[in-house]
Amino acid sequence: MPLSIKMNNLGKVYKMGKNEYRALSDINLEISKGEFVSIVGPSGAGKSTLMNIIGCLDNATEGEYFLDGLSTNCSDNRLAEIRNKKIGFIFQNYNLLPKLSVRENVELPLVYQGLSSEEIRTRAMEVLTKVGLEEHIAHKPSELSGGQKQRVAIARALASNPEIILADEPTGALDSKTGKEVIGMIKKINEDGNTVILITHDMEIAKEAKRVITVRDGKILSDDSSVGRE
Question: Is residue 30 part of a domain?
Fold first, then answer.
């Protein structure tokens, strides 16, 4: 099966004055297209650093990272181009712009893709309908519940039709019932063919994926395809 992600001996070192802090060491990871993978670990384990590199928000300082066959060892502008075309992000705190409507928040990533106004609006409405928010397109984020805000974030992540969805603690700000609904939507996204990578500190949430990768002290501690729920 073709790979979405391939990492070889990846490492990340942060320099703080004369000191260095090693966040990741010897990460070797392959994720195939269409997989649903969770990355789990306690605070400080390195999973956020790994997420930032997977999402092309940061560069590794050691090793190689290929995203859909493309090297990410490139300029910041090229990295941003790869990120915008290949990855959709779902964040714990939604990251919605408060002054924009639901529809405008979803349209925003499409503006940078050179589409016509009609194409942008059509695509935004398609994904908003998919997440059940077609009747809320004129609302501002402040007028929505937490679950509705996360559904806007999911729609925005899907708008550019990315191959990979990267979800960072997507249920962290939600009650358990709403969290289960959001996880159900993320599982449906995977069933529709997207590669999904879920970052969490919660093992119960992690087990909703078909493969669970545990990170600790900047290294992959385990990689288990048997614990995920079918």
Answer: no
Domain that holds residue 122: 35-58+83-224
Question: CB under 8 Å to 23, separation ≥6 — which residues?
Answer: 12, 13, 14, 46, 49, 218
What totals of helices (H) and strands (E) does the chain contain, helices first?
A: 7, 10
Residue type, 29: L
Helix (H, G, I), strand (E, B) or coil at 16: strand
What is the SS3 assignment for 3? Answer: strand
What CATH number does the domain containing 116 carry? 3.40.50.300
Query: How confident is the model at residue 50, as a pLDDT?
Result: 94
In a domain, 64, yes or no: no
| Helix, strand, coil share (%) of the chain residues, nearest 5 | 35, 30, 35
Q: If you ran DSSP here, which 8-state letter would residue 204 be given? A: H
In a domain, 187, yes or no: yes
Q: Is the pTM of this model over 0.85?
A: yes
Query: What pairs with residue 179 in β-bridges?
Result: none
Q: Is 181 exposed, middle or buried (0-12, 13-18, 19+ CB in 10 A)?
A: middle
96 within 8 A of 134, measured Cβ to Cβ = no
Residue 147 lies in a domain: yes
* 8 A C-beta contact, residue 41 and residue 192: no
Query: How many domains, in total, are found in the chain?
Result: 1
Reduce the DSSP state of residue 80 to 3 states and report it. helix
> Has residue 153 got a pLDDT over 80?
yes
> CA 101 to CA 149: how far, in whole Å?
11
